[in-house]
Write a structure and sequence with these properties.
The structure is a single chain. By secondary structure, this protein is an alpha/beta fold. It has 22 helices and 24 strands. A hairpin with an 8-residue loop joins strand 7 and strand 8. It binds NADPH dihydro-nicotinamide-adenine-dinucleotide phosphate. The site of NADPH dihydro-nicotinamide-adenine-dinucleotide phosphate has 32 residues, from helix 14 and helix 15.
């Protein structure tokens, strides 16, 4: 048989990914090979050992398989007694490759250009090369046949990379058209910021490490037509998923929780890498989310069980009962700051209640989002029941426009308004968790050291990037000076540094643009008479760093007291008494939470009852609990998540009126 040369084969990127996965699975998990389309889809979308990370749908994989068959590189397999068609490659025969060449070609197909050192490490599960020389000799054999070539060494690079030549580099397909919600302004309402034309969304999204600015991964963006296909598949999958007994769905979510636990450290590192959250805090979030998943598993079944309200009786009393049906296809558009909480607070109860979910992680937490979907699939949740949509604003907007039944959105007030307007126009159910500007009031009766510690934590945990972070602090005149001294001591002692280090308290900000916001708010405050007691500046190093900051002499007209800061910044003002505190705490457009620090519980209760917020905190702050409803008021949102009330968000009631015919 004659050897095939590279110029006889040209693969698209999708064909390359599908072929690479078939090759990998045949070499590394032969017991589970050949692969069904679903297994292949999971393999293609795997978030580890793939570059770029992609989220292909069934149609894309089917299409790639069809063309691989046309190019004589793949076959369908139908084993006797099996209902599912499976797929295998025939690369060794078609390309006449021996095991070492096969291993290198496979890894090049899956991860793009790589150095010999990287290839040696990454082919370990496929074939053991005795040495780098051995591997380089194999690369040379591939090059001689035109299957691979060495790239120019880049300045500063020790080793040159190698690429495969059988993948077409011609990416001529046009980028997805941006879809921005068309929003009409209501007379008198604050204008919705849609004036500037939406930027064209790139076909891939670069994930960077906010601590260093280094590029981590390229991830393929889900295009508008793919969103439509995914929605269609989610709708088709819905009936079967909703029809499963509750215990089956619960078992898959239990398995997911166990797997997340087992992979917690890897997941924490991934999140810290792309969001900049200090590693201890990433670990804490994953640990705490486990409890939330298990609470939902235990409670959703009970909450959505049908209820008899009135027993039918022979005297003509009509029987009345309520049943709960899933809403259908739920879109969840997520924020990056607590990627596990925010995503799973919606996805877990939605799935348990029998909905299918399309989940768009924030572009700043894409890898974490894809990892969650990957875990859900590996736990056994069918691939069409939960699907990822990757991208930024344009993908989010296209998802809201798609054929969904409900949208859960977590993000800023500005974007939330756009989402709400589109949803209202289509009478879609919308649940919105938006920004906040939570205030704390420190009374004169507290131990200032303890209060200062608690307030600083509430303001600076996760670098102040919480929707319910303390962003305004009011302190009673009588202990203002002592409290401020203690606060500055705590804030100055925070260890700012490498988020991967266990000792770090404050890492970088997740978004570079927020540095400008903080600078501008602080500049405005100082220009209007505020005094800086510590911090106040960017930290001069690669990445998005800002000093933990305390400001005093702030007044309520300053931007720093009105707009979300989302950074480690604590503005502190004096108040005369409780009435003064209540008036100023409530003088905001937001209504997420408020905290009172005092030794007198009933005083705190009186104050908190008067405030128009969804979350009341006595001597604590910046926390949420799966057992309590989470509901922002005014500009902080609409609807409820978590608790029994949050579970009901994901079902529709059906009322039954029943009477036997006489
Ligand atoms: P954004 O509003 O910028 O984005 C939220 C999500 O919406 C992202 O996935 C974003 O995509 C997407 N998006 C952007 N434009 C559109 C659009 N036109 N249509 C649909 N989706 C769109 O907020 P952040 O991600 O920066 O999150 C921080 C905000 O979230 C803060 O205001 C914070 O207070 C709030 N938040 C509220 C919580 C709560 O419980 N109340 C909890 C956590 C955060 P992308 O960013 O990927 O481009």
């Amino acid at each position: 048989m004659n050897e095939v040369a590279s110029n006889e084969i040209e693969l698209t990127t999708e064909e390359a990914r599908v072929l690479g996965c078939l090759m990998e699975k045949s070499a590394t998990t032969p017991d589970n090979y050949p692969l069904s389309v679903n297994a292949l889809m999971t393999a293609c979308n795997q978030t580890t050992n793939r570059d770029p990370v992609v989220s292909y749908d069934e149609a894309t994989v089917e299409h790639a398989l069809e063309s691989l068959r046309a190019k004589a590189l793949g076959r369908r397999v139908m084993a006797t007694g099996q209902r599912v068609v499976k797929h295998r490659h025939v690369v060794e025969e078609a390309l006449q490759l021996h095991v070492p060449e096969f291993a290198i070609l496979g890894v090049l197909l899956l991860r793009g250009p790589q150095t010999p050192g990287e290839l040696k490490q990454r082919t370990e599960r496929w074939h053991t090369f005795r040495s780098l020389d051995d591997l380089e000799a194999t690369l040379q054999r591939l090059a001689d046949r035109g299957f691979a070539r060495q790239l120019e060494r880049r300045p500063g690079q020790k080793e040159a990379r190698w690429m495969t030549l059988i993948v077409s580099t011609d990416e001529t397909a046009p980028p997805a058209e941006p879809v921005d919600a068309q929003v009409e302004e209501t007379p008198g309402a604050e204008p919705i910021p849609t004036a500037e034309p939406a930027p064209r969304e790139e076909r891939s999204l670069s994930v960077r490490n906010p601590a260093t600015g280094a590029m981590l991964r390229d991830v393929a963006v889900t295009e508008e037509r793919e969103i439509a296909q995914k929605t269609d598949r989610a709708r088709r999958a819905h009936r079967a998923w909703a029809g499963r007994p509750y215990e089956e769905r619960a078992e898959l979510l239990r398995r997911f929780a166990t797997m997340l636990d087992a992979e917690a450290e890897e997941c924490a590192r991934l999140t810290t890498g792309e969001v900049g959250k200090p590693i201890r805090q990433s670990r804490n979030e994953i640990k705490a989310v486990h409890e939330r998943i298990m609470w939902n598993v235990a409670r959703v079944g009970e909450v959505i069980a049908p209820r008899v309200v009135t027993q039918a009786a022979g005297d003509g009393t009509v029987g009345e009962r309520i049943s709960y049906e899933p809403v259908g296809v739920v879109a969840h558009i997520s924020a990056w700051n607590y990627p596990y909480f925010v995503a799973l607070n919606s996805i877990v109860p939605a799935l348990l209640a029998g909905n299918t979910v399309l989940y768009k992680p924030s572009e700043h937490a894409t890898l974490t989002g894809l990892r969650l979907v990957d875990l859900l699939h590996r736990a056994g949740v069918p691939v069409d029941v939960v699907q990822a949509v990757v991208g930024g604003g344009a993908a989010g907007s296209a998802l809201v426009d798609a054929d969904i039944d409900m949208v859960c959105f977590t993000g800023s007030h500005a974007t939330g308004r756009k989402v709400a307007t589109t949803a209202a126009d289509r009478l879609l159910r919308a649940q919105l968790e938006l920004g906040g500007k939570d205030a704390a009031y420190v009374c004169e009766d507290v131990d200032v050291e303890s209060a200062a510690f608690a307030v600083a934590e509430g303001a600076c945990y996760n670098g102040g990037q919480s929707c319910c972070a303390l962003e305004r602090v009011y302190v009673h005149d009588a202990n203002f000076a002592r409290f401020v001294d203690a606060l500055v001591q705590v804030v100055e002692a925070y260890r700012v540094g490498d988020p991967d280090d266990d000792a770090t308290d404050i890492g970088p900000l997740a978004r570079a643009a927020q540095l400008d916001v903080l600078e501008s708010q602080i500049g405005d405050a100082i220009a209007k008479g505020a005094r800086l007691l510590c911090g106040g500046e960017r930290i001069a190093r690669e990445g998005n760093w800002f000093e933990p900051t305390v400001l005093v002499d702030v007044d309520d007209r300053m931007a720093i007291m009105r707009e979300e800061s989302f950074g480690p910044v604590v503005p502190v003002a004096r108040v005369r008494n409780d009435d003064d505190a209540v008036g100023r705490m409530d003088d905001t457009e937001f209504g997420l939470g408020a905290a009172v620090f005092t030794n007198d519980r009933s005083r705190a209760e009186k104050i908190l009852t008067r405030l128009d917020v969804g979350n009341a905190y006595w001597n604590t702050s910046d926390r949420s609990s799966v057992r309590l409803p989470w509901a922002g008021r005014r500009h902080s949102g609409n609807g409820v998540s978590m608790s029994e009330a949050g579970i009901r968000t994901f079902v529709r009631e059906k009322s039954w009126h029943e009477q036997p015919l006489r």
